[in-house]
Amino acid sequence: MSKKPSTPDKADIPVATLRSMHLTMVRLRRFEERVAELLCGESEIKCPVHLYIGQEAVATGVCANLRQDDYVFSTHRSHGHYLAKGGDMKALMAELYGKATGCSRGRGGSMHLASPEMGLPGSSAIVAGTIPLAVGAALAFTMQEKDTVAVAFFGDGAANEGVFYESLNFASLKKLPVIFVCENNLFSTHMPVAECLADTNIYKKAEAFCMPGVRIDGNDVSEVFKTARQAVAEARAGRGPALIECMTYRWRGHVGPNYDLDKGLRTKAELDHWLAHCPIRQLEQFLLERGIMTEPGKRRIYESVDREIDESLVFAKESPCPDESELLDNVFKV
Amino acid sequence: MRQITYVQAINEALRQLLERDRRVFLIGQGVTSPWYVGASTVGLFERFPKRVIDTPVSENGVTGVAAGAALAGLRPILVHPRMDFMYYAMDQLANHAANWHYMFGGQMNVPLTIWGIINRGGEQAAQHSQALQAVFTHIPGLKVVMPSTPYDAKGLLAASVEDGNPVVFIDDRWLYNETGDVPEELYSVPIGKGVVRREGKDVTVAATSFMVLKAMEAAAALVKEGIDVEVIDLRSLKPLDGELLFASVRKTGRLVVVDGGWKTGGIGAEISARVVETEFKYLKKPIVRVALPDAPAPASSVLEKVYYPDANTIVSAVKQLL
Questions:
Q1: Alpha helix (H) ranges present in B40-111?
Q2: Which residues in chain A touch residue B61, judged by CB atoms under 8 angstroms apart?
Q3: Angle (CA) B7 B12 B15, round 5°
Q4: In degrees rounded to 5, what are phi and psi of residue B196?
Q5: Are A99 and A316 in contact (CB under 8 A)?
Q6: How far, in Å, CA of A184 to CA of A192, rounded?
């Protein structure tokens, strides 16, 4: 595991930011817990769904440092990045239901979410596929003389792809404003990371490309926030890219709502260890201890988030499906 | 009108496109090299040092970089100096650039010109000779153009850059020294429109790229024998100008399709199917395909000579139909 400090230092993070990151994480968690329930049995959600539960601190801590015009490129496990960057929850739920009001108009499903106005140009289901796209956006920002940055989120599995290394090299070579955020959840679909990588220290790959690389506790939102804050500031100032490896864990299986303990891929002890290191509970403990949040206040947050989810579900269910006559629309931009 | 070579037309188009629009940039292997891309980029780096970007040999990564820059509002021209190298870039082209507009319900688009150069002959063998137009034509979301004249090279390159979609612009080094009329100002040739290069009444020969030149040579030889060939330059493989082709087939009732790619699953197969689907009753004879044999390109020049079809191959094909 990572070099986790026993008492995370949150002293220099504004209270408003801590509160806002807490709310974001609760939104991500409660939304996906609802989706997990909806996926059980004869579900109306038909598209493959890869849940982010357990990894919320990564998207939250990184995106809390971004402006609306910064770009975030995401993966098949994309709900967290989408919501943390400001994507609309109703449009997300509608997309899971394949509706015309979905954030991708029912053409993408769970793995392909976009919200251009919020700086979400899209997510890809091809492992490592969006990494060079983020580098390209960063190249464009440089050529346009903007101070926006691009973030590529990807899993540990992406470190097995050649294009990951091509992208690190090009970004460093041209000193581009891009932050590579590896969410190391210890599994590449079913395969433990140690069975995939000769060296599982993914952050060390940065050294070969002359860029900063760090490994942090991806379940500590303060650590993610502060690490990303520095990387974003460096990138914005034109000092080039960075690689941040966030150690985390997905609680559910690779795809779908189950914990997959019956499949023999991991032990209950391992899962329990990570459940005990819940990113949300860690932050809540701190907020309650410091009196920043009270138990009734916390309850109100959860209730309000649950109402928002209820509304998104009603919206999704009541929304129309795409019209059959629109099948061939948007193959090309006219 | 002023006459320049095909390669000069490309160079001029690039320069004028870079001049006209600050969103345009040129990226790829060899763009600052005097010889790598056949002198087509000579002088551009000196003129636009920030917008002519030579790259490491990372075809997939660099293709993704170009697509990402297009998503962020630029108009990249990405060059692959040999089409063979584009297999490395297939993921970014087929999975990403081609799908992006559809997959997000039309919200994003990728205005990216992917310039692939066919560079064959000279005993370069199997990995330095390929003509992959059929591969790209198969993929939804990609447009594919193949200019055969200097005029069209300039005009279709401009149209590709102006288009809001990924356009695969394919040229052939065997065309680079051909000369033709080219206006000095920038203009565009519409994507999706073919052109009749020679009117005739007996047989339609529909050809692509360099093979249009061979078809014209064949037509010139055949007219001496009293055979009147209509030559169609397809120019755009996707979208295809079906109406132009169909009208010609209705007139002649005979069709030879000539393409510089492999036969099986190739452009000739697609064109033949399209014609049979709607114009079957006008056909007086079966359609004949002139294409590469289903084999990798050989090195030996003795074998190259029989591998690549030429005007004589087309003459024989036409005669089969009479």
A1: 44-47, 59-71, 90, 100-103
A2: 132, 135, 163, 166-167, 169-170
A3: 130
A4: -85, 120
A5: yes
A6: 11
- pLDDT of A85-107, one tens digit each? 999 999 999 999 999 999 999 99
Q: Where are the alpha helices (DSSP H) in A259-294?
A: 268-276, 279-289
Long-range contacts of A290-296 (CB under 8 A, 24+ apart): A292/A15, A292/A18, A292/A19, A293/A19, A293/A22
Selected residue of A99, A117, A167, A333 to mutate for chain B interface (largest B Cβ count, 10 A)? A333
- The strand pairing partners of B171, in sequence order, are B117
Q: Using the predicted structure, report yes or no on whether residue B184 has a pLDDT greater than 90.
A: yes
Class of domain A15-314: alpha beta
Q: What is the CA radius of gyration of chain A?
A: 19
Residue A319 exposure: Cα atoms within 13 Å on the Cβ side = 24
Find the residue in A nearest to B239 (Cα). A332
Are A58 and A185 within 8 A, CB to CB? no
Residue A108 pLDDT more than 60? Answer: yes
Coil, strand or helix at B19: helix
Catalytic positions of B? 59, 128
The CATH homologous superfamily to which domain B3-181 belongs is Thiamin diphosphate (ThDP)-binding fold, Pyr/PP domains (3.40.50.970)
- List chain B domain ranges: 3-181, 195-320
Size of chain A in residues: 334
Cβ contact A132:A158 at 8 Å: no
Residue type, B190: P
Nearest residue to B129 (alpha-carbon basis) of B173, B93, B89: B173
**For residue B55, which of A126, A139, A128, A124 has the smallest C-alpha distance?**
A139
Could you give the CA distance from residue A90 to residue A74 in angstroms, rounded to a whole number?
19
Q: What is the pLDDT of residues B244-272, one digit of tens each?
A: 999 999 999 999 999 999 999 999 999 99
The two three-digit tokens of residue B37, written as one number: 């891309």
Mean pLDDT of the region B40-60: 96
Q: Which helix (H) or strand (E) segment is B52 a member of?
A: strand B52-54
Bridging pattern class, strands B255-262 and B203-207: parallel
What is the maximum span of chain A, computed from C-alpha positions, in angstroms?
Answer: 58
> Mean pLDDT across the stretch A130-143?
98
* Identical fold, B3-181 and B195-320: yes
Residue A45 three-state SS: coil
B70 touches chain A (CB under 8 A): yes
Give residue A3's pLDDT: 44
Contact A104 B104 (CB under 8 A): yes
Which pair of tokens denotes residue B72?
A: 């962020």
Q: Is A291 on the interface with B (CB under 8 A)?
A: no
Half-sphere exposure of A152 (CA within 13 A, CB side): 35
What are φ and ψ of residue B78, in 5° steps? -105, 125
Tell whether A109 is within 8 A of chain B (Cβ).
no
Fold of B195-320: Rossmann fold (3.40.50)
pLDDT score of B98 more than 60: yes
What tokens does B11 get? 């160079």
Judged against a pLDDT cut of 70, whether residue A177 lies above it is answered with yes
